[in-house]
Amino acid sequence: MKIYDYEDYKLYVNDWVMTQPKSGYGQFKKIADFIGINSVVISQIFKGDRQLSLEQACEVSRYIGLDDLEKDFFLLLVQIGRSGSHDLTKTLSRQLKEKKKTALNLKSRIKHSQFSNEDKAEFYSQWFYSAIRLSTDIDAINSIDDISSLLGLQRETVANILTFLKNAGLVVEKNNVLNVGPQVTHVGHDSPFVYKHHSNWRLKSLQCMENVSSEKELFYTGPMALSEEAADDIRSQAVQFIERATKTASKSNSATVACLNLDWFRVVKKY
Q: Lowest CB count within 10 Å: 54, 176, 199, 220, which one?
């Protein structure tokens, strides 16, 4: 369901609730708690004549997980619902049509035939761009809510990043099912984005290290003194391990998202 198909924000929210697990049972209570109002009031709004305030509408859009364009559209719908005059409603409706036209043009446009440097700069700016993309390869993950729960991210963040990933061809959505898109990401050792890519995931590793939750996780740091031959041999073994690990992961059915960080470097300069 697309918000741009609606002219009534209450109808949109009611329909959205029905698409949630258990046909939305308990969702209005969750919305009420999220925006800080009584569940009776939320019922009066979405089942009666009471209207959302614009502040409450912002919170509802955040709870649902609307991206920035969808949020703007939703707020216009709320303003129309709150309008007390024909002239104001007419003005807002005209703005709504323009907003819909702009949003649909942007969403239907393919941004780039290749993964551009502009896209890469955004994609490699934070660890969760890659994590959100990879999570869509898990069969059980098919919504903003699923991704938000899986990665511990706010719905609003997930919604905006999913919009970017779809436009860049990194994620596709068909029949309400999310999956990894055909576009390929690769950052070489000489790329201007490689440092950011490495540092993002190492910072994430440090965060996870503070609260190791499972024996399935592994953190190892091992400074050592050794011969040049041994150092070269260990590097070669590491490359072979990475190749095996990548092949193992690519052949498996996705059920989780993990990250392998492996560093091998000279602490001192050769003399």
A: 220
Q: Would you place residue 107 in the very low, low, confident or very high pLDDT band (cuts 50, 70, 90)? A: low
**Phi, psi values for residue 177, rounded to 5°:** -115, 125
Beta strands in the chain (DSSP E): 171-174, 177-180
Angle at 12 between CA 73 and CA 77, to 5 degrees: 35
pLDDT value at residue 110: 44
Helix, strand, or coil here: 212? Answer: coil
Task: Report long-range pairs for 251-258 (Cβ below 8 Å, ≥24 apart).
Answer: 253/139, 254/134, 254/137, 254/138, 254/139, 255/138, 256/138, 257/131, 257/134, 257/135, 257/138, 257/150, 257/151
Average pLDDT, the chain: 88
Rg of the chain, C-alpha, whole Å:
24
Q: How confident is the model at residue 270 (pLDDT cuts 50, 70, 90)?
A: low
Structural domain range at position 91: 3-108
pLDDT in tens, 169-206: 899 888 778 898 877 777 778 889 999 999 999 999 99
CB atoms inside a 10 Å sphere around CB 65: 22
Q: Is the pLDDT of residue 62 over 90?
A: no
Q: How many domains does the chain have?
A: 1
Dihedral of the CA atoms 104, 110, 111, 112 (nearest 10)?
Answer: 180
Structure tokens at 31: 């919305």
In a domain, 95, yes or no: yes
Closest CA to 52 of 72, 74, 33, 67: 74
pLDDT value at residue 72? 92
In a domain, 61, yes or no: yes
CA 154 – CA 134 distance, rounded (Å): 17
> Could you say which DSSP state residue 263 is in?
-
